[in-house]
Write a structure and sequence with these properties.
Elements: E1 2-4, H1 9-32, H2 40-59, E2 62-65, E3 69-74, E4 77-82, E5 86-92, E6 100-101, E7 107-112, E8 119-122, H3 127-137, E9 142-143
Parallel strand pairs: 5-9, 6-8
Antiparallel strand pairs: 1-2, 2-3, 3-4, 5-7, 7-8
Helix pairs in contact: 1-2
Length: 145
Amino acid sequence: MVFRSKIDFVFISVIAFSVIITGGVFLLPLLMDETAKSDMIVSLSLFALTTGFLLWISFSIRYIFKDGYLLIKSGPIKKRIPYESVTRITPTSEILSGFRILSSKDSYEVFYKDGSLGSIKISPKDAERFINELKNRCPNLTIAS
């Protein structure tokens, strides 16, 4: 079962601002310097690669229930959390700190035993169904409200 991440206006604004800044860094020198025309292909390629990577990791966030673990995926970033190690899920508004793969302020923090960080912040689009599915698969899950 696959759940997509909820995307809110603040997240879209931050990504749009990042793309504009990236465009300014790579493209503004081309417009200001007449002799930089030979560097146009390099600058445009770097802009396209950087923007493409940013959009890929931002809009491909998935939370996938596999047979023995929860797979949290965003572009090339993957985190596997075995169901036995999940201990608690709680709503959180602290999205600026900790390990997070989310795209909304409406988020949850999943706590688990294994791993160096001990928790991850996520924002499933259909949170109620996600929590029910997690509850069905995780024997030690405590749901905090």
